[in-house]
Amino acid sequence: MATKSYNHFTVSIPQEWIAHVEINRPEKLNAFTEEMWLTLPKVFDALSDDPRVRVIILSGAGDKAFSAGLDLQSAAVPGSVFNPRPEDVADGARFATKFRRFAYKFQDCVSSIERCEKPVICVLHGISLGIAVDISVCADLRICTSNTSFSVKEVDIGVASDVSTLSRLPKVVGSYSWVKEVCLTARTFGAEEALRVGLVNSIFENKAGAMQEASRIAAVIASKSPVAVQATKNFLDWNRDHDIATGLKYTAVFNAAAINTKDVPVAMAAARTKVTPKFEKL
Fold this sequence. Notes:
Elements: E1 2-6, E2 9-15, E3 17-23, H1 34-49, E4 53-60, E5 65-67, H2 72-75, H3 92-115, E6 120-124, E7 127-129, H4 131-136, E8 141-145, E9 149-151, H5 165-172, H6 176-185, E10 189-190, H7 191-197, E11 202-204, H8 207-222, H9 226-240, H10 244-258, H11 263-273
Parallel strand pairs: 3-4, 4-6, 5-7, 6-8, 7-9, 8-11
Antiparallel strand pairs: 1-2, 2-3, 9-10
Helix pairs in contact: 1-3, 9-10
């Protein structure tokens, strides 16, 4: 059942504690317009605050694509930052200021997926180019179908990716030289290669199977203490970007408050009595 209506996004709660966000522009291969990426933080900030939600599954509508990337037709409108008019670039500093503000906003919109307090499981299928990779590396887990084709496409349109991929992809996969190769060449790579380097957690034959696995994992996560789950996501992301000593201090200070939750005695009692614990909304 849909819980919120957004243009080109469908948000539903298919089962208790689990939200499903579907990019819904299949007739255009779920390619992103400016309106769509501006909608991302509205979707994920709302779900981050929603006490009914503990885990989020993100997928793309249709059979052909998770997302074909940026909608180049809409981006090429005269006067946009991708297709400036001569008068727009007459003063280089002023245009640079405008573009920098645009880039910061674009980055912040995509980062809303990572910033979301709830774990996000991204299910990729078919065509997954450009912004599809930017989005997926903001998620916590990635599952794909055997026909998924990935590409960090930006150099093919004359720019360096500045939204998410070049900052996050090296921290997701195990090979920095592999990251440089795929980003410099924009070559397409498939599901098996994505699994080998650690970009995806698992591969399924079709979208239905991948969605089923995402739902299974989401249900397991949703059964845990939401205090513990959200703190764990927070700690892992924080420690990825800080040194060990700083990370240890941060987690200790955070947990000094979080450990006071009622979820700890509930979880411990459930473990002793071998029953399924029930945790309150957070």
